[in-house]
Amino acid sequence: MAHSMHLDLNRRDFLNLGLAAGAFTLASPLQSATTAKGALKLEELSLTELQAGLASGRWTSRQVVAGYLARIRALDQAGPKLHAVIELNPDALAIAAALDKERKEKGLRGPLHGIPVLIKDNLDTADKMHTTAGSLALQDAPAPKVDAFVVQRLRDAGAVILGKANLSEWANFRGKGSTSGWSGRGGLTRNPYALDRNPSGSSSGSAVAVAASLCAAAVGTETDGSIVSPSNACGIVGLKPTLGLVSRSGIIPIAHSQDTAGPMGRTVRDVAMLLGAMTGPDPKDSVTEASRGKAVEDYTRFLDPAGLKGARLGVVRSFMGSNPHLAKAFASALDAIKTAGAELIDPIELSTSAYDDAELEVLLFEFKTDLNAYLAARGGAVKDLKALIAFNDAHGDQELRYFGQQLLQQADGKGPLTEPAYLKALETCRRLSRIEGIDAAMDKHKLDALLAPTGNPADVTDLVNGGGGGGSCSSPAAVAGYPHLTVPMGFAFGLPMGLSFFGRAWSERMLLNLGFAFEQLTQARHPPRFAPTAKL
Following CA atoms 256, 232, 157, 143 in sequence, which dihedral angle do they give, to the nearest 10 degrees? Predict the structure, then answer.
């Protein structure tokens, strides 16, 4: 398995920061931000804590970037070999140094000034890094001419793009029996809580990197479950925004009716900070026009530790499954929420079975149209879906060694988006997921949000049979294009489980407030210990 990596980090940076592999104790961040000798300790530091240290001069952005690079060397390339990072930005240290100078001479560029962020390897960057969706087919393609709009927004806010995160190849839309977290270019990403467990996908590298403190925060993308499911499996906070709140331009697509980028962090506040930096109307993506007057630059001002008091929340049990450990954690979460003053309406009926087939039909049609347009504009040898399929066949020993490309082949057989089959499937999805789904449930019961367990604890990784699953409750919000937040809820044998808050379009403020209050009430998250297996 190829694992492409650029690492601009010299030995003096590594040693001076006191970040040799043996130094990775996962203590309280407030107690271990620095050692007695002043060496920077990055484990679990929040964006607020990092910014406070930068503002006070306790450390520089260049030191923070060098520290994360050292941590990646010790945990991603060596040590547990998490394989969360597919490529590092060779200019990251220089960018950080320039931002340190800018801070002194001109002040802050934005709320993320000097903060290192990893982005999923399906977001375009017009720099020295590749953008490949994890596929060897795009490794030699010309670099994108411009940054994805989201990437440009992050740079405008002062973020250092530290590198690209590994992912399930083609965002897990390639073949049946796929293994989440694997890509031909990046190899297999491993769950930091138990290395034999799957991180889920497709934003697997982003989730693992955040959980293991390989970055301050990360950006993932979701079509259905690809942010919330790996966030659940890796014990972090993830938000899939309303379709149109965050631009899709410059992101390798699956389907425009469901695709969105979203923030991933260790705390709700971190996710709120990152979201504010990502939003904004984009002239290249007309759907973002609907966000005018709805997006805000600072979502942290809506966070209230007492935010659960008086809330009416619908409990969706239809996605529960049969895992007794998940049921126990969910029951405890509901008890805590009631104690905090929320009113629970239990149960709320919500099902996806009536539109599961229609969703796949929509994704197949849109994938062909959207990916062909992206590849044609990008340039290179692989100009369309047919050429991609041919490339995979020609490089089957690398690309097809574990699973096939049936979804690519099915999509290539679809026609234009004017076909009645597509239009009927799209109408079915929108009507059943929105009007007769989330909106109807919330109207009937006058709800502020819906609650459900995000998904089961992580599966064992199985390259023979595939798997690694999606978030069990991801589809209603994904198909509707509505927001979905997952927050750590508890553990089963050392494996994380998340609690989902989802609801109407543009309800990010409400969901973040509810999630923040739950997080502050329960303090359920703890950092990974990099155990070889789950503690059964």
Answer: -50
